[in-house]
Amino acid sequence: MDYLSITKANTLHGSINISGSKNAALPLIAMCILAHNCVNLSNMPCVKDISTLMTLLQNLGSTYTFKNNQAAIDTSKILHTKATYDIVKTMRASILVLGPLLARFGHCEVSLPGGCAIGQRPVDLHLKALEQMGASIEIKSGYIQAKAPKGLKGADIVFDKITVTGTANIIMAAALAHGTTTITNAAKEPEVVQLCEILSKSGIKIEGIATSSLTIAGTSGKLIEIAPVAIIPDRIEAGTYLCAGAITKSSLTLNGANHEHLHAVISKLEEMGCTFTLTCNAITIHPAKNLRPINIVTQEYPAFPTDMQAQFLALATQANGTSIIEERLFENRFMHISELQRMGADIKLNGHVATITGKTKLSGTDVMATDLRASSALILAALVADKKTTVHRIYHLDRGYEKLEQKLQNVGADILRLKE
Ligand code: UD1
Asked: CA 179: distance to chain centroid?
C-alpha cells in the first residue's frame, strides 16, 4: 500500500494546474447512458473514482477509452442493467447510474451503497423521487430493484433536503421521461449546473438552471446526441491548494481555477487575512502574515462546502485565536480531528461543532487518512509540522486528487509517495 512521507515545507512558490472536477465528471459519465452517440469528455481528472465509474459502465456493456485526460464513452451496446456490489461499495456516487439506467431501459438493479466513513448517507430521497415518477422500487438482498416498464413519467418533485447526487439522478431520469418534471429544492452546485447546461445543449428543455427550481421536459424515451464536453475545474482541489498557500505562508497561483465557484472559500481566507489576485482563469493567493481565526458553518452551495471543512480545520490550527467550525451536512465528518490531535492540534469536538485553538506547533508523526478530504487536511498539517509526517491509507486521496504529490513537489514541497 502506498503512503506519503512529508517533511516540513519552507515557503512554496510557483503555480499549480487545477484538474477537471471529479464531482462534475461523475454525473457526466452517468449521463452518457442517455446518449445514442459516443460522448467525448475532455479535462477529465485521472483519479480512481473516475475509473471506477467507467469500469461500472464497462461491466454493463459500454466501451470507453481514457487517455491524457480525454475520455470517449459509448453506451450504445449496454446489455446489462445491474450495478453490482463489488463496485458500488467502493464508491457511493455509483448511485448516479440509477436514474439514467431506469429512464433508458425501464428496469435496473443497483446495489445499495451502504455506510461510509463520513456518515450514514442514505439514498431515500433518490428513491422517493423515482417512485413519484412512476417507478416501482423494491429493496431485495441489498439491491435497489427499480422498474418502470412503460417509462418514467414527469412529476413534481420536492426534495425534503438538498441532495447533490439526488438532484443529478432525477435530472437525468427526467430527461428521458414522458412529460415534464419539476424539481423544487434542487441542488445548485456548479457540478449540477454543468450537467443541466450540457443536457440543455443536447436538446433537453430545462428551465431554472442554477436555481433551486428546475423544470425539465423529457424526450419520452428518445436517446439524445451529446456534443463534446469539457469538464469544469475542480473547485475543491483548488480550495485545497489555496489552503496550502495560506498554511505555508506562500504565494501560489492556481491556473485553470474558476474563482466564481469559490466565493465562500475565498471569502473565509480573506477573513483570515489572505488576499487574492483573480483573473478569468487563475487565482493567486497572497498569504496572511498572521492568520486570524474564523467561524465556519458548512452548507449547500453557494455557502461554505463541507468538502473544504477538513482542510480549514487544519488551517485553523495555525490561526492565532479560537476558530469554530460547524459541520451541518455529514454527522461523522470529523475523523481527521483525532489524527490532527496526534500531531499536537488543540481541537475540542462537541457534537457537530469543532473548536480549534491556535496557533499550535504541530509535530510530524504517523497518521492515517480516513476519507478523501481528511487526507488532504493531514497533508496540509504535515506541510507545517516539525519533522517528518507519514500519511497512511492514501487510497482515499487517490480517489479524488490528481497527481497531488507531483503538483506539490513542483511548488517546492518535500513530499514523497512510498510503498509500505
Ligand atoms: C455530494 C458530493 C460530495 C459532497 C456532498 C455535499 C459528489 C459525487 N459528491 O455527495 O463530495 O460532500 O455532495 O456537498 O458530488 N441525504 C439524505 N437522503 C438522500 C440523499 C442525501 O438524507 O437520499 C442527506 C445526506 O445524508 C447529507 C445531505 O443529504 O446529509 C446531503 O447529501 P448529498 O448532497 O446527497 O451528498 P452526495 O450527493 O452523496
From this structure: 31
